[in-house]
Amino acid sequence: QVQLVESGGGLVQAGGSLRLSCAASGRSLGTNAVGWFRQAPGKEREFVAAISWRGEIMSYKDSVKGRFTISRDNAKNTVFLQMNSLKPEDTAMYYCAAARRSHYTGPSVSEYVYWGQGTQVTVSS
Question: Average pLDDT over the chain, rounded to whole?
Fold first, then answer.
């Protein structure tokens, strides 16, 4: 069993930056791919980015490419999402999730078996 805890969310002006962290406990995340998802009020949860267990494969939602960067530090059992040039449409609750497979970096929610509780990101215009 893996417990995931997100942190780093907050209120930021458009154009600003935030760095989200996803810390794992219970066991190592070292063999799981990890993804970030977000959900805005009244909308479905959507894929943002994912990274394979060694970090050699990364995938991004088209609208965040060039602005967001996912990375991981397996020694610290933590995955990060650096978000730059934030836009009001990035406002959402952000969740990290561990995939059942080590190299899955796709958007299918059903492939992710462990989820955190989320951290709120609010971008003001």
Answer: 96
